[in-house]
């Protein structure tokens, strides 16, 4: 009929009257028949049969020849076993997913691939459907629901794909009856916007047939009995430091490289750009659609250009495929399509969750989402809905942690600012992070160090973000609570850089802080004993912190004990041995009231440090051994590393060189295997000294070659220079020995503590030994006349001594 009136509009009423009369057929059935004719004609862009809104259809005059082909094409289609495309784009990193879904379909009648927009659900369903062709007697039939907007269109769409006529009667009953005893697979793609309509149709089909199976893709589960879900995750991304070969084994990287190569045949990823390509994959969270869009830009902008502009990826990333659905033309369009399916409450929750920088727990999510207009239970329901819709990912167990993909977070954050909710959400976020310090302390008392870090290190970026927000607003109470948690994680992970970097902001908060907040800020400053600050040195910070804790009624025992221990250590370091021992006794008295082995462990460590600075070698070694026993017994593996770092020094102080070598060898071996660089620096320096004194020269040189860089990196350069001066003397390198001894010599009128005195005594011993050799060497040994070498020069000389060269 359209061919007979080519070039003229034929209304829907005319078509229904001429083709189907007297049967009653819905407009949706007509629409599906027209779509099937378009498919047979190859009219993918609807340029052959045009739809005129509210008027009807028109066949372009030039298409009459195509119409004559319809009978032949329809006959061929009747014998087809699939309407899937002849070829599918190559999949990367999805072999396990294809195998899992295909295997499950052999056992289950309903499988739903669930995942976020752009995650690759359609591609996976295509691959599974293609594999299933030939396994189903009556074929595999693809139904794309993305173009449908009405619930009434679902049944006709399935019927057209499966070749079933819906002429009279109830369409769903006709569909089920038409499927009857057929053995086939229906693949329903993009169900998320019509779930309420799709679910009852699938339920009726499965209930009314025996041999039909259904594979669906959706952002949300259909929630039907017997439904089995396959949650599709992101592609595996390479580690940040991956080699080119390691990166090439990861699906995200493979996809990026292949898509660029398809766009530009002469493309070859230069070695210098591999780290940038890896970072592109990582920053796009391994989301296939986002990676394909980035790849499409690389031929024009280059890898470095795309990497530079990635911060604006919602605007920059576009789909260059001509037939891409409108909802996937840009990354923003894909995300906005997903957000358009949310209720107002769910959308509010998503906006507020965008304040999280990393994974978050349920309690924190509820605190951030909850407001006077959205209570905690509504917040919980909204979070669950967002997980169901794949906009929030749930990861791990006990506790479950949640995460937004970075691309989702960026759009949600934009919406948060547009809604004027950003500042209020950040306030709730910072207060949620402030509660972490207590959770971390409880975990420290009851869990292993590794369990604690596994639980809380994922929140580190959010805690840092909350701390910075609180500092910007001079919110000392919140900042101090977050800071305690951050410092605890830094100490357990062996980080010596982040806490000192926060000290300027911490000191700036002190005028705004009182009570507990002020005590916490001062305690944190006191823990950075290696940082010299003329205005607020660690000892003064510890003194002030103790005073603040004592003002509280009653004082918090664990914090007070810890701060007293810090003060005792600082006093001993400054040579006030008697007062240090008195303060240590106070700390022990407070610790005994808690009667907890982890508290005893921390007390033993500080008692060992007090003994070290006071020169009590036997006590130093005994306390560190006690701390190590407690740490191992109570699974404090990170604390054990810290103790291991000081055991060799304790052994060196006793002068028992064979024992010091044995202890040092064990400690260095364990710390090196664990990759604990800061702790390894301490242990290695003392081990080198023990080897030299035990006259194991070659072994000392080999160990020093690895230890020197660490010593200079972690502020042990003077100690290592003294050791290398002694080694140079043993090797007959007198000039090097003199220069290194001068560099190592303690400055100031009087050495402050036993460590300084021991180093001074070693330098004097070196000078005395040098003066005993021939006159030329003795002249060189008077290093002070030539001036102290620079740090870089001292390091160079130390490395020369370790290598055996005379330089």
Quick tags:
807 residues, three-stranded antiparallel β-sheet, 41 helices, 5% strand
Give structural notes:
- The chain has 807 residues and is mainly alpha-helical.
- It contains 41 helices and 10 strands.
- The strands form 3 sheets. It has a 5-stranded parallel beta sheet with strand order 4-5-6-3-7, sandwiched between helices.
- β1 (49-52) and β2 (56-59) form a beta hairpin.
- α11 packs across α13 (288-309) and α28 runs antiparallel to α29 (577-594).
- The chain is elongated.
- 44% of the residues are buried.
- Residues 774-785 have low confidence and may be disordered.
Mean pLDDT: 86
- Radius of gyration (Å): 36 Å
Q: Kindly name the structural category.
A: mainly alpha
Task: Indicate the overall shape.
Answer: elongated
Largest beta sheet, briefly?
5 strands, parallel
How far is the N terminus from the C terminus? 99 Å
Overall number of strands: 10
Helix count from the secondary structure assignment: 41
Residue share in helices? 55-70%
Sheet with the most strands: spatial strand order: 4-5-6-3-7
List low-pLDDT spans. 774-785
Strand content: 5-15%
Assembly type of the chains comes to: single chain
